């Protein structure tokens, strides 16, 4: 006998009547996501007289490459077959210029797939073909699908909501935050607004409009707010100007000299730690809800103490998570220091290391404070009557 898979996917929400509200919220968020996808701005790429397509390397001629130790200069002569688009199936000749930079140069081999940029004349004919890089979009799409399937299979309806929040967050950053920063909007204000907005959307979408969601949201915002205030103070005190951010100078020299890199750096600090703050607040809020459901007689004080005990365990690993994440991004820099036997006092005083140090410490301070505050707020919310908003357990 076949059973309907929908109740299994949706869980108890089918029975408790909350599904309708959640579906309305999901529909609205999906609608806004589609609007953001097609939302134009002054920085949207205009194709003009060029096309981008996937091509396969049919033959390679490396006779013009010159080797200088690790560095290669010169050019590769390539024979390419276009695999999609207007010129699908066309075979063309091109060259791959080597600049002598390991981070920019690509050495193509036969059967490699490349991202090919075609320059066209006014009549639409190919003038020049530039093999810009390896073609990675198919792999990116494949693993995005794998991630989505694993998330949905494991978490069911909650996984669908988590995936939607993931996509919506990426769109908000790309379509609202980045263009706003480029236009010169105050970086601290717009970053804090976007961070707060996404925190609310993600938490209430995943947890629902209930006491658990409210507890997690308030705890998250407390940690993010503390981190933002500390970032504003210490960035000025430590004379960190934000030029340490990747491609910051390139951005200034590209016609955006009006940007305040220091404020962008401040925004990047609390934006980076906001995800960890949400995780910690949600862990504690979910634990408090579970405790209260299992034992409705728990007092406010007992629930707060239980939340603090849960927070102690989670904070221990969460702060280390930030350290490992930031260290991983600068592992080659740390290797260079060790290889050159740089004194530790020089290392920690260097602006690149100092900026990462403050990112880690400020984010960790915010995380540590999230735990007791969420436990305190949750203890009150789960045991006291809330008159302002009618919230479900």
General description of the model:
The chain has 393 residues and is of the alpha+beta class. The protein has two domains: 50-135, OB fold (Dihydrolipoamide Acetyltransferase, E2P) (Beta Barrel); 184-383, no CATH class. It has 13 helices and six strands. Strands 1, 2, 3, 4, 5 and 6 form a six-stranded antiparallel β-sheet that branches. Strand 2 (66-68) and strand 3 form a beta hairpin. Helix 6 packs antiparallel against helix 7. It is globular, with a radius of gyration of 26 Å. The model is unreliable at 1-15 (pLDDT under 50).
Short synopsis of the structure:
The protein is an alpha+beta fold.
**Head-to-tail CA distance between termini:** 35 Å
Strand content: 5-15%
Report the strand count.
Answer: 6
Order of helices and strands: HHHEEEEEEHHHHHHHHHH
How big is the Rg? 26 Å
Low-pLDDT stretches are 1-15
Topology:
Layout: H1 5-10, H2 13-16, H3 19-37, E1 50-61, E2 66-68, E3 71-82, E4 91-99, E5 113-120, E6 126-134, H4 137-155, H5 157-182, H6 187-207, H7 211-237, H8 248-252, H9 261-294, H10 300-329, H11 331-339, H12 344-349, H13 351-383
Antiparallel strand pairs: 1-3, 1-5, 2-3, 3-4, 5-6
Helix pairs in contact: 3-5, 4-5, 5-6, 6-7, 6-9, 7-9, 7-13, 9-10, 9-13, 10-13
């Amino acid at each position: 006998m076949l059973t309907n898979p929908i109740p299994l996917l949706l869980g108890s929400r089918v029975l408790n009547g909350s599904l309708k509200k959640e579906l309305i919220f999901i529909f609205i968020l999906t609608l806004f996501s589609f609007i953001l996808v097609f939302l134009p701005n002054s920085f949207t790429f205009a194709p003009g007289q060029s096309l981008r397509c996937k091509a396969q390397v049919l033959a390679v001629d490396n006779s013009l490459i010159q080797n200088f130790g690790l560095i290669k200069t010169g050019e590769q002569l390539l024979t390419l077959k276009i695999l999609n688009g207007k010129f699908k199936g066309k075979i063309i000749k091109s060259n791959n210029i080597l600049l002598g930079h390991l981070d920019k140069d690509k050495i193509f081999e036969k059967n490699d797939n490349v991202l090919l940029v075609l320059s066209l004349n006014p009549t639409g004919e190919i003038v020049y073909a530039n093999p810009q890089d390896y073609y990675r979009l198919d792999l990116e799409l494949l693993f995005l699908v794998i991630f989505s399937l694993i998330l949905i299979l494991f978490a069911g309806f909650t996984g669908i909501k988590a995936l939607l929040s993931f996509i919506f967050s990426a769109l908000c950053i790309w379509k609202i935050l980045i263009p706003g920063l480029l236009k010169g909007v105050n970086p601290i204000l717009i970053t804090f607004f976007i961070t707060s907005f996404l925190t609310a959307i993600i938490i209430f979408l995943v947890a629902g409009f209930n006491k658990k969601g409210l507890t997690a949201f308030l705890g998250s915002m407390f940690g993010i707010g503390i981190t933002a205030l500390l970032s504003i103070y210490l960035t000025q005190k430590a004379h960190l100007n934000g030029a340490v951010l990747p491609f910051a100078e390139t951005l200034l020299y590209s016609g955006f000299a009006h940007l305040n890199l220091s404020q962008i750096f401040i925004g990047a600090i609390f934006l980076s730690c906001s995800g960890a703050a949400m995780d910690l607040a949600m862990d504690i809020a979910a634990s408090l809800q579970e405790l209260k459901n299992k034992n409705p007689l728990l007092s406010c004080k007992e629930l707060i103490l239980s939340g603090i005990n849960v927070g102690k365990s989670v904070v221990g690993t969460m702060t280390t998570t930030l350290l490992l994440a930031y260290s991983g991004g600068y592992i080659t820099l740390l290797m260079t220091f060790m290889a050159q036997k740089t004194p530790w006092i020089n290392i920690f005083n260097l602006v690149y290391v100092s900026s990462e140090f403050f990112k880690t410490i400020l984010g960790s301070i915010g995380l540590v404070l999230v735990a007791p505050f969420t436990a305190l707020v949750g203890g009150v919310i789960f045991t006291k009557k809330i008159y302002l908003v009618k919230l479900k357990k």
